[in-house]
């Protein structure tokens, strides 16, 4: 079992860091690659992450050829032959995001069977919006023995989503590309990863309007063809380094970071007193921790503050003098990292969806365990500002979403290493 060891306290990050393609973009993009019946699809700027390997296996399980050339961060998918209807439990069970293959398989084959994704530590994460949407498009859905079976020729429909779910928007958008007629998705998710998916689908021949707004209009076409697409940069990885720079009085250029995608995070950093500047190569973050002010943050669907930056931002709140407030409205159980940070001396109180963080007290390194992907990054960041040694375990979470995180931090001046303990 690998561990990350940080000698913290005096870290001041400086230099330039490069950002990978977005995990949350590439997973649905891979699901989309099973739609075209003519030509191959090439994805470039693909991050080397365990979730990507899992999704590749989900797609391969459908009898689709997937070639991941890691040296060039490129995946070529050939789905031109017949594809199977069933996504294998073995891989679907490893990753909730694999549910986004349901819409594409159903749209292409008229029948699909996908294992029900299990629970998750950050919340219950139901998939009712995915299923209700597909039903509105004419699918007959049954749930039995842990599997979801969907069948029927899909037709266009007007669908209002109770909540702008990212995964449901992606699933329904992909299903609608091959449905008969026009589908209108209202209260759709607006995340940059939705826009990235719409760009690829459009290159494949799909007719989609409104991506990035709350109303998506998709006119079904008879078939789709292969395409080439560069995965959008990872705004959450970029945001994590922005926070790391801010909390260590750093000066870091986050190369290729996109201001527009990180607007809600940047607004909060600037409100705290962090200097954030758009430069030709990316975004520069400069800060003097002693001058930063506490803030209140509320997570919301995009363009609100991203829940995937909540844990890392609480690490910054822990560093800043005074009382900050974090309100988590997207997932009901996403404060577990605060319990681990308490082991490092953090004073915080949690009342339902609200955490009060009493920041600025000296923190001490301690052995801690990652509880989920973003929590693992938050604990490592907290290690940077804690006196002495922090040992972070359960790195399988980190490897799902961060490529060589410790190496990137070390290059910026952190005293951090990763060790294997078998
Ligand atoms: C995606 C991201 C994840 C991020 C989340 C919210 C990927 C691979 N994952 O997850 O990193 O944290 O968006 O930004 O892109 N919900 C329902 N019914 C549904 C679907 C969702 O009630 O059918 C609820 C969920 O329980 C949750 C909220 O909606 O409370 C947001 O979920 P959703 O936007 O669907 O997140 P994911 O697509 O799973």
Count of beta strands: 24
The description of the largest β-sheet is: 4 strands, mixed
> On the 0-100 scale, what is the average pLDDT?
96
Ligands and ions found: uridine-diphosphate-N-acetylglucosamine
- Taking pLDDT < 50 over at least 5 consecutive residues as the criterion, the unreliable ranges are none
| Morphology call | elongated
* Portion in beta strands: 25-35%
Helical proportion?
25-40%
Task: Report the total helices.
Answer: 14
CATH class of the largest domain: Alpha Beta
Helical/strand content category: alpha/beta
Say what the CATH topology of the largest domain is.
Answer: UDP-n-acetylglucosamine1-carboxyvinyl-transferase, Chain
Strand order of the largest sheet: 22-23-1-24
- The total tally of domains equals 2
Give a description of the structure.
The chain contains 14 helices and 24 strands. The longest helix has 13 residues, at 235-247. Helix 1 (23-32) runs parallel beside helix 2, helix 5 (128-136) runs parallel beside helix 6 (166-177) and helix 8 (235-247) packs parallel to helix 10. By secondary structure, it is α/β, with parallel strands linked by helices. Uridine-diphosphate-N-acetylglucosamine (UD1) binds at residues 24, 27, 96-97, 123, 125-130, 163, 165-168, 193, 307-308, 330-331. Uridine-diphosphate-N-acetylglucosamine binds next to helix 1, helix 5 and helix 6.
């Amino acid at each position: 079992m690998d561990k990350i060891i940080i000698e913290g306290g005096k870290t001041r990050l400086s230099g330039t860091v490069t950002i990978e393609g977005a995990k949350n973009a590439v997973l649905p993009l891979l699901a989309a690659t099973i739609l075209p019946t003519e030509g191959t699809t090439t994805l470039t700027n693909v991050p080397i992450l365990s979730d990507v390997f899992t999704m590749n296996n989900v797609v391969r399980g459908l009898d689709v050829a997937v070639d991941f050339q890691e040296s060039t961060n490129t995946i070529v998918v050939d789905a031109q032959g017949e594809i199977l209807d069933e996504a294998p439990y073995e891989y679907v069970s490893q990753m909730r995001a694999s549910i986004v293959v349901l819409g594409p398989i159903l749209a292409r084959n008229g029948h699909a069977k996908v294992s029900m994704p299990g629970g998750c530590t950050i919340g219950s994460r139901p998939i009712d919006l995915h299923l209700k949407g597909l039903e509105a498009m004419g699918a007959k859905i049954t749930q039995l023995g842990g599997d979801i079976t969907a069948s029927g020729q899909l037709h266009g429909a007007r669908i209002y989503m109770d909540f702008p779910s990212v995964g449901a928007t992606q699933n329904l958008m992909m299903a609608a590309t091959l449905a008969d007629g026009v589908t209108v998705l209202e209260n759709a998710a607006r995340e940059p990863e939705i826009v990235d998916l719409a760009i690829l689908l459009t290159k494949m021949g799909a007719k989609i309007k409104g991506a990035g707004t709350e109303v998506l209009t998709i006119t079904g076409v008879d078939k789709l063809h292969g395409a080439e697409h560069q995965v959008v940069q990872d705004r959450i990885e970029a945001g994590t380094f922005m926070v790391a720079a801010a909390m260590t009085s750093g000066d870091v250029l986050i190369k290729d970071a996109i201001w527009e995608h990180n607007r809600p995070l940047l607004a909060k950093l600037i409100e705290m007193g962090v200097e954030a500047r758009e430069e030709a190569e990316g975004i520069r973050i400069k800060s003097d921790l002693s001058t930063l002010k506490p803030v209140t943050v509320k997570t919301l669907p995009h363009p609100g503050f991203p829940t995937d930056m909540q844990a890392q931002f609480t690490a910054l709140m822990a560093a800043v003098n005074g009382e900050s407030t974090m309100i988590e409205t997207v997932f009901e159980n996403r404060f577990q990292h605060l319990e681990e940070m308490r082991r490092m001396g953090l004073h915080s109180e949690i009342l339902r969806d609200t955490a009060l963080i009493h920041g600025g007290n000296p923190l001490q390194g301690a052995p801690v365990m990652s509880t989920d992907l973003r929590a693992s990054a938050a604990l490592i960041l907290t290690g940077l500002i804690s006196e002495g040694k922090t040992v972070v375990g359960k790195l399988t979470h980190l490897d799902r979403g961060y490529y060589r995180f410790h190496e990137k931090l070390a290059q910026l001046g952190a005293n951090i290493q990763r060790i294997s303990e078998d």
